[in-house]
Amino acid sequence: MAWQKQILRVNLTTGVCAIEPLNMEWAESYLGSRGLGSKYLFEEMDPAADALSAENKIIFATGPLTGTMASTGGRYTVVTKGALTGAIACSNSGGKFGGELKMAGYDMLIIEGESEKPVYLHIEDEKVEICDASEIWGKTVWETEDLLAAKYRDPLMKFAGIGQAGETLCRYACIVNDKHRAAGRSGVGAVMGAKKIKTIAVRGSIGVRSSDPKAFYKIVNEVNARMDDREGMSREGTLAMIDVTNGFGSLPTNNNRSVRFEGANKLNPEAMHTPNENGHTNFVTNGACFGCTIGCGRICKIDPTHFSVKDRPEYHGASGGLEYETAYALGSACGVDDIDAATFAGFICNEYGMDPISLGGTIAAAMELYDIGVIDDKVTGGIKLEFGSAEALCQIAELTGKGEGFGVDIAMGSKRLCEKYGHPDLSMTVKGQEFAAYDGRSMQGMGLAYATSNRGACHLRADPYEHDFETTEIAGKAENVRDSQHDVAFLDSSGLCLFPGGCGWGLEDYRTLVDAACDSDWTDERLKLTGERIWVLEKLFNLKAGLGKKDDTLPKRILEEPADVGTGKGLVCRLDEMLPEYYELCGWDADGVPTSETLTRLGLN
Amino acid sequence: MKISITLFGGLRQYLPAGSGYNNCDIEVDEGVSLQTLLAKIPIPDGKPFLVMHNDTRITPEQYAELNIASDDQVVLLPPIKGG
Q: Of A317, A344, A320, A318, which is closest to residue A330 (Cα–Cα)?
């Protein structure tokens, strides 16, 4: 089977690194990655502990298919208590780090305690050492990777670490691997910063083997042949969605004041691929993660004459460019239609280690506070924080990454920022986490998915897209959201990416690969039950952390202010009607607490 | 008369040769129905899409009875996917 059957545990307080056997009983019940990492976290820490305390643990978990020859089998999940949300955080990333960790012989890395001084972790198969990080503390993600790769004379070494945003405990600091892939959401980078661990450097030479490689290879090829609708994703990436949601009327704009952005056509694939007035083209090529046969990543360059990078040659090279979520957060959410400015702000997120969705969402909230006169130039340090200002976006992004000036306020996240300035209703968040690029009024199912997401507002905890595309009527939304939450929990636990699901694969294809990799009988029924078990376990973590029904809600704007245009024109999100039905379908009581019958059915008593 | 029609996302591949990035003008008779207009776009059977007419969602049952005027806005959207 494709599990390595061992985990690496690193205690930063004691300095002890130990290799332990993987709990295979748990692996059979929670599969891997998100599910298995959540099980370990749930069993090993008090969910009520402060996210930034030594009691919190941070787990890097691969799935059984990570590091195998299965397409997109490069994913890993960072599981911890989120610094942004106080809820369970399960931040998934691609790139090549996950595969490398698995090939070093580990299904999972558990980091506990906290170090007195900055350190980094160096892993080469069974050789593990905690190293002094005084020379890289204070460096960017990019500088850190370059310095350590040079130190070890190993250009193939892989890293997952934090920039200055994580060190200064920015609430939505992320963990960046391979320079521009990230476990982005919920503030997992701040947890690393609090533990004073800068990065994890890993090289693996053990490889990943299935029990019957020839049979596995045959199945991988058969399933891969069914990924027959990937050309568009490869050519334009997720960015292609910006025209669609804008036309539909679900592109959050100006802190969700509107659901359509006039400047969307300046951020779309055509804008990315067409030379500007200086003859510069933003798009360079596409990029793929470990083992991926899609290649949705955008590799882009900023026009060197653009104000953000003029006379700054360090930003003239190609790096991770705009995807749909970043084009929304650093574009329409702030009313900015300057593709180079948004690309620059995205570079800053990768360099300093910040979640661009939360950064953009927080800047958008600050722009609204500025617009209504709650904050002024004195507060912002002279920055004209107006909706649409590309200059303000770029300035604030850098200040936040460095933890300077008004960036200190922006680093708190939208919820804390809006509370500080007396307007909590202007924070477009759920459980303290900023919205993704869909509006819960024209997409009612997405509204329910945001409200009930265990990690705060998120577009990848459920799959309400098709249902929402078909109708704004709420009949069937609760069932669709519940079922897809379970399916996604399973898929996230496999070590594969979700995107093949939009390129031709169905649930059956994922199940076939898991079944082939795990040498046990993974039926449809078991798949569904495993997904539900993971979802409910995350819910139990949150309940113990003090979150409850009061947190399964949406901002007043989405519940009371009708959408202005598009398919949802005149609608608010009917969460009050959907939520009770959702709880009942889940087998939870009226307060959103799983009943004892539900827990017994899932083996969670 | 000429009708301007816009196709987003993956539907763009069905625009006639010589079209713009995501739209084209189609020559039709006055008072043409939406159904007749759509028949001029070679979208394969079974390919899901949504029609927005003047920013209003149109169901397939309405295609035959909805007449299009020259300054109307007709937009075809493929399904939304997570990204």
A: A344
